Amino acid sequence: MVKLLDNYLEKSERFAESKINIPKFDQGKVAESTTDNPVWVHFGGGNLFRCFHAVVAQDLLNQGELNSGIIVAETYDDEVIEKIYHAYDNRFLSVTMKSDGTFDKELIASVSESFYFNSENTEGWAHLTKVFENPSLQFTTFSITEKGYSLRDSKDQLTPLALEDMQGRSKPKTNMGAITYLLYARFKAGKFPIAMVSTDNFSENGLKLQEAILTIAKAWVENEIVEQDFYDYLINPKRVSFPWSMIDRITPNPSEKVAGLLTADGFEDTEILHSQKHTNIAPFGNTEEVHYLVIEDAFPNGRPALEKAGVILTDRETVNDADQMKVTACLNPLHTALAIFGSLLDYHSIWEEVANPDLLALIKNLGYGEALPVVKNPKIINPTEFIDQLLTKRLPNKNIPDTPQRIAADSSQKIPVRYGVTIGHYIANPRFSVKELEFIPLVIAAWCRYLIGINDELESFSPSPDPLLEELQSYLTKVKLDGSQKEIHEILKPILSNHQIFPHEMYQTGLAEKIETYFEEMIQGKGAVLATLQIALKKHGKNY
Ligand SMILES: NC(=O)c1ccc[n+]([C@@H]2O[C@H](COP(=O)([O-])OP(=O)(O)OC[C@H]3O[C@@H](n4cnc5c(N)ncnc54)[C@H](O)[C@@H]3O)[C@@H](O)[C@H]2O)c1
Ligand SMILES: O=P(O)(O)OC[C@@H](O)[C@@H](O)[C@H](O)[C@H](O)CO
To answer: Which Pfam families would you find in this protein's record (predicted)?
Structure first.
């Protein structure tokens, strides 16, 4: 058996026996150089980071294109740092699951340091501050989920914690307050340049990060906590940039099945952690083969040759087009539809869902039928080929243990981007009418039905974690599922008129009425969700 803490340079033949590729560098030496010359900090050391960013860094370290490792800062889940990073000397096994049933396995050692970064944790706080004061630092990446950037609640009001952070700088409580604190340390140390790269799944992610940081910084200037010069530093792209990005690699939570196969292959560290804060993470990460990372090439302090590890560096417009193509049209809206219907129809695997002709027809009609006509071609990736590849190779890959329940997490945060952008195109473009949309309202109706927490067999299930779950469920507590429910409009109105979830006025577009009708059909008793889907497909669906 081999394990992560084995000396991979001395025991390389044992790793080879288990078909595990090992780093071509000495992790200890890289770590020393990271202490002196940090280059790359990553916030949010979850599964995507481990299977994507860390693999890019490893590739560059192997090629000699990078000499220092990634510093991971976790603002949210301290258990992950202690039990998953420190316990394994920041190493992990990346497992790429190919459609022919085989795995590619690589021991990743590109993370040099990891910290719980919170103003109450003095060690991590002091260390990250020092890192940000170092002129060598070139960029930071983020994968902290959509909600990690938020300063506002569901009513678009600044949260009490955000308001508190805007009043004082010494102990920020929000992620954005803490990041602004670090940028202030960098500013004071010498106004050194840096790129702040969000790689979370939402449109204009760089802009959202920038706006959140500027909200805090502006309040600090107004409250005379910091000098105006700091704000000017943040808005000068030659000093601080917020590149936009598109990231794509389906990375499910670590699976027990993969753990079992790794054990059978002679790898020892397979225990999955389900943390108290609901992070599912393990000493290994499982991901797919296909991947795209497109980043706006705006790095004022320079950058490693990321392109040598497959990253596409381009201008903002192209990034935005690629991102809109993926996140708002060709992948994520389809994923969320499978997540919602899958939870209602009691599926626990994505590949099984796409083997169901009704669900496959639903996502084809959403993708090819409703989203593709209004999406701009990003040129670097062909949108039709992208959906074709998704539907024929990626989603049906039985080797990828992805679940509707993972994807359903935080749906309230995703709906504005995954469906709202397409709705916006239909409203804005005179060649289209928003009234043509059938499958987007159908999915939104199914999401409202999903929030009730009772599936299509009328058995209860636990909806995936979502910051608005409790509030949204409070509107639906009395819904009867036996066909006797009246006043659907009164029940759904508070949800459908929430502009944080639906940026467009759903009642003016006529979409809300359609959603209400679909919702009503879905609460007519056992099997009503599937029946509604089948009727909608029969009436409005095309064969793609
Ligand atoms: N997994 C994928 O397939 C995939 C692919 C492309 C993009 N993404 C993006 O990456 C993000 C993370 O995905 P993942 O697979 O790593 O998820 P994960 O559950 O494995 O990890 C989530 C990470 O975000 C942190 N986090 C959660 N809530 C937070 C909060 N409120 N504040 C700060 N940090 C918080 C967690 O501590 C953890 O480090 C997604 O939300 C998405 O935007 C994921
Ligand atoms: O990561 P989330 O939670 O924003 O969304 C869930 C999935 O749709 C997402 O992770 C996809 O797997 C990913 O976007 C593929 O690149």
So the answer is: Mannitol_dh, Mannitol_dh_C
